[in-house]
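Researcher: Go.
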Amino acid sequence: MTAYREYPPHPALAAHVACLWTMQVAGAPHTHRVLPDNCVDILWQDTGTPAFAVGMMSASVLVPAARPMRTVAVRFKPGAAGLFLGAPLHGLTDVRADLAHLWGRPSADRLDDALWDAADDGQRIALIQRVLLRRLRESGVTPPALGLRAVAAIEASHGALRVEALADALHVSRQHLALQFRQQVGLSPKLFARICRFRRALALLREPAGHGGDLAALAAECGYFDQSHLIRDFHDFADGTPGGR
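Model: Structure:
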């Protein structure tokens, strides 16, 4: 059995944090698939494993759960994690990095100890938010405007905006946009847009009507060139097909 819950961030963090979340896994060992979501997370677990950051994902991963485990985590909005991790995000893509390497071991260990001494998840969430607020105040870094503007434009189009058109709208070259976006967000703008489009298609498939199995109509609505393009993205990002979601 898995119990998952999301918590809204403190108002002062809302521009940067999508949510905080907890998960408790109980029962027999199992494996679940995590799909790319264009976000960066930091996870703390009560297994004795050091806290770690999970960078942007270019494909799905299988995560085993060998025994009961409690997780508390923060999920950053696209392009925001660098303010808190103190590192360019392209170096974390498809990587799980120990938080001690990013924050320093004393800071990471103090928070880890405090979390598992706390009485409940509410206290753990409050502890994490206090640390994030402090790091935000102390960072003295201005959020990267180009990356955030590009993210907003791609998300508003559900991934249908072409990179050439995006670069023109932002008055930069495609090469400059690609370099800055990769450093500030973690993926190329083209791959980020593909994942946006894939996640929209997945969300529509999960609705009660589910598009009635009409993949051609779904592909057209989500901005795919054709049905085969849609199927390819499900293979690349979910290692499956739309019908087997």
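Model: The longest strand covers residues 17-25.
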